[in-house]
């Protein structure tokens, strides 16, 4: 027999053996048997399934904890260049420290406080007596400061449905949001949340302006949405930028749903009688706090003193006290 004939015969024998092997595998699969070895890779079938499962679990875990890609964010605070807003890259400025003092009592109460009013304590409304006291900037800075917490996430909601200053400031006035969610309970609220370049901070725009905002905020739909927002994530703070208390009826209605209310007061500008009148609209006094805004350096020197951190000139936010 020639060398060529021997080679042809060997190939034919190998083909026959391979065909029989595939047939055995196919027959075994039909009978529900598990082979210890794969015909193609030599890896056990059980091992193959474990590798597939490991790969799937790895994908899920990485998606759960993925970092924010700057190219995919909806709102970039770095690009907005808003004056007086905390930078996520700083850490020891006077402004940072003042907001640390402001947020701490709110966080402690949100997750370990006594819920006397029955409303979720992680729902916090930021308001003021009149416009121009800095409540929207306070909301922004407080949200960024809370986002710096290691074990907290923050959702910022523009709840001024008639005059959405937060949405305008962030350049998202044309985006659908809170109004649409209140009008249609079948809508998925998650699809309206916008990512920012601050990790763990999301924003819900006000949405389409609505002249019947008070009725929307007092509706059963509002109660259902707030329950959804407060309970979806156990580590979440939901911060609401609301209209001034003395300017509209919406704020007092919104406050009735809140676990906590923080009222911004402009130092040296807001008359005392207006502050008192605004606070009288808030029925649960135990849940109300004050944030003194735009205070001068001489005021801080008298009440805080030179502590020695060497902070630079700040914006005067942060004197915090109970009502």
Q: Describe the global form.
A: globular
Low-confidence segments, ≥5 residues, pLDDT <50? 2-8, 28-66, 304-323
> What percentage of residues falls in helices of 4 or more residues?
40-55%
Give the SSE order as H and E letters. HHHHEHEHHEEHHEHEHEHE
What is the beta-strand fraction?
5-15%
CATH superfamily of the largest domain: P-loop containing nucleotide triphosphate hydrolases
Tell me about the largest β-sheet.
8 strands, mixed
Indicate how many domains the architecture comprises: 2
Find the count of extended strands (DSSP E, 2+ residues).
8
What is the average per-residue confidence, as pLDDT, rounded to a whole number? 77
Query: How many individual helices?
Result: 12
Summarize the structure.
The protein has helices at residues 3-30, 45-64, 77-80, 94-112, 135-147, 165-169, 178-183, 213-217, 220-231, 250-255, 272-279, 297-303; strands at 123-128, 153-158, 194-195, 201-204, 236-241, 260-266, 288-293, 319-322. With 323 residues, it is α/β, with parallel strands linked by helices. It has 2 domains: 3-64, no CATH class; 77-322, P-loop containing nucleotide triphosphate hydrolases (Rossmann fold, 3-Layer(aba) Sandwich).
């Amino acid at each position: 027999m020639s060398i060529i004939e021997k080679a042809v015969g060997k190939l034919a024998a190998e083909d026959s053996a391979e065909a029989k092997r595939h047939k055995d595998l196919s027959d075994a699969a039909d009978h529900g048997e598990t082979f210890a070895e794969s015909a193609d890779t030599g890896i056990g079938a059980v091992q193959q399934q474990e590798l597939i499962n490991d790969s799937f679990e790895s994908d899920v875990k990485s998606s759960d904890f993925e970092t924010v890609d700057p190219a995919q964010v909806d709102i970039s605070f770095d690009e907005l260049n808003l004056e007086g807003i905390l930078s996520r890259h700083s850490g020891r400025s006077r402004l940072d420290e003042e907001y640390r003092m402001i947020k701490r009592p709110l966080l402690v109460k949100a997750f370990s406080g006594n819920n006397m009013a029955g409303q979720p304590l992680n729902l916090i409304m930021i308001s003021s007596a009149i416009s121009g006291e800095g409540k929207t900037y306070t909301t922004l800075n407080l949200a960024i400061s809370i986002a710096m917490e290691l074990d907290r996430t923050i959702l910022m909601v523009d709840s001024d449905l008639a005059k959405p200053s937060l949405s305008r400031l962030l350049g998202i006035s044309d985006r659908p949001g809170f109004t649409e969610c209140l009008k249609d309970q079948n809508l998925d609220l998650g699809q309206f949340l916008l990512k920012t370049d601050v990790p763990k901070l999301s924003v819900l725009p006000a949405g389409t302006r609505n002249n019947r905002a008070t009725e929307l905020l007092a509706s059963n739909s509002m109660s259902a949405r707030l329950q959804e927002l407060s309970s979806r994530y156990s580590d979440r703070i939901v911060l609401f930028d609301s209209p001034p208390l003395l300017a509209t009826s919406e704020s007092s209605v919104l406050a009735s749903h809140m676990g906590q209310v923080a009222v911004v007061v402009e130092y040296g500008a807001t008359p005392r009688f207006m502050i008192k009148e605004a606070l009288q609209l808030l029925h649960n006094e135990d849940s109300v706090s004050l944030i003194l805004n735009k205070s001068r350096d001489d005021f801080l020197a008298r009440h805080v003193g030179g502590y020695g951190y060497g902070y630079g000139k700040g914006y005067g936010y942060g004197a915090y006290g109970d009502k």
